[in-house]
């Protein structure tokens, strides 16, 4: 099989093949012996080991079993499944406008029971008012040069956010205090947004923690990410949206969220930080 037309996907396949070869070498067996243990032709193990043929889930399990490394199979299978869609450029996602992007996550949001959200840049989408979302999405559309469907995108986001109050879902948010200070909109719109955030603190299924700017910390600020149950992570960068499904990746982000959460203040202390941000608007 020829290389995948996407260099990003091909690199992911090559990384997986490298890991499989390392497992074989650590087991001290040759490619021929691996093929015998798996019941394959020697050419099949060579094609998989050299990233010419993407392995199936069963192939990965057989490879790991032959190398007495069954514990590594779940991560490798997840890596194999996500290789084609783990990193998707925003340009591609937003090509048809922002409304479709808001609607594309609707099923995932409805299926998830526990959300863990860390933000270091803007108010979480779940908690945005229409005014704040409009200002933010307008900025994104202008920067990326996407079709101007901001009004429709805002309406779609507000509809999507109904999961906050429908069903038995739990939400845990950790915000950097800087999020309260970044002015993505007019003072009036920002005041309304912060007022809405104060109201969210009263919801029984929502926990909000804020990491104070002035406190000493042992976990650095990092790019925004969302953990959906214990099944996947969405981590965003300027150029791409990453979907991570490997158990080790999810565990890493869950550990980071826990550390950040421990540094956050809640209740009256969180309210005081929000009130101070409102007061700073003048």
UniProtKB/TrEMBL annotation:
Protein name: Helix-turn-helix domain-containing protein
Pfam family, one: HTH_31
Domain HTH cro/C1-type: 19-73
Domain of life: Bacteria
InterPro entries: Cro/C1-type_HTH, DUF5753, Lambda_DNA-bd_dom_sf
SUPFAM superfamilies (alphabetical): lambda repressor-like DNA-binding domains
Signal peptide region: none
Species in which this protein is naturally found: Streptomyces anatolicus
């Amino acid at each position: 099989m020829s290389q995948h037309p996407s260099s990003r996907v091909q690199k992911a396949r090559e990384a997986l093949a490298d890991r499989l070869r390392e497992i074989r070498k650590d087991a001290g067996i040759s490619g021929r012996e691996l093929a015998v243990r798996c019941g394959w032709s020697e050419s099949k193990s060579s094609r998989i080991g050299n990233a010419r043929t993407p392995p199936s889930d069963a192939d990965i399990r057989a490879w790991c079993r032959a190398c007495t490394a069954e514990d590594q199979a779940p991560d490798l299978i997840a890596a194999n499944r996500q290789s084609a869609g783990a990193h998707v450029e925003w340009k591609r996602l937003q090509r048809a406008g922002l409304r479709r992007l808001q609607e594309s996550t609707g099923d995932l949001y409805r299926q998830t029971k526990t959300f863990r959200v860390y933000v270091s840049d803007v108010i979480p989408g779940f908690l945005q008012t229409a005014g704040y979302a409009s200002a933010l999405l307008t900025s994104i559309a202008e920067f990326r040069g996407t079709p101007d469907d901001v009004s429709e995108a805002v309406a779609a986001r507000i509809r999507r956010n109904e999961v906050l109050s429908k069903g038995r879902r739990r939400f845990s948010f950790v915000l950097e205090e800087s999020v309260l200070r970044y002015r993505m909109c007019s003072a009036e719109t920002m005041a309304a947004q912060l007022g809405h955030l104060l109201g969210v603190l009263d919801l029984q299924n929502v926990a909000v923690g804020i990491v104070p700017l002035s406190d000493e910390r042992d976990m650095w600020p990092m790019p925004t990410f969302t953990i959906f149950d214990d099944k996947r992570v969405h981590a965003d960068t300027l150029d791409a949206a990453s979907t991570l499904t490997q158990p080790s990746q999810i565990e890493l982000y869950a550990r980071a969220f826990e550390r950040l959460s421990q540094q956050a203040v809640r209740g009256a202390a969180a309210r005081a930080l929000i009130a101070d941000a409102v007061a700073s608007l003048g």
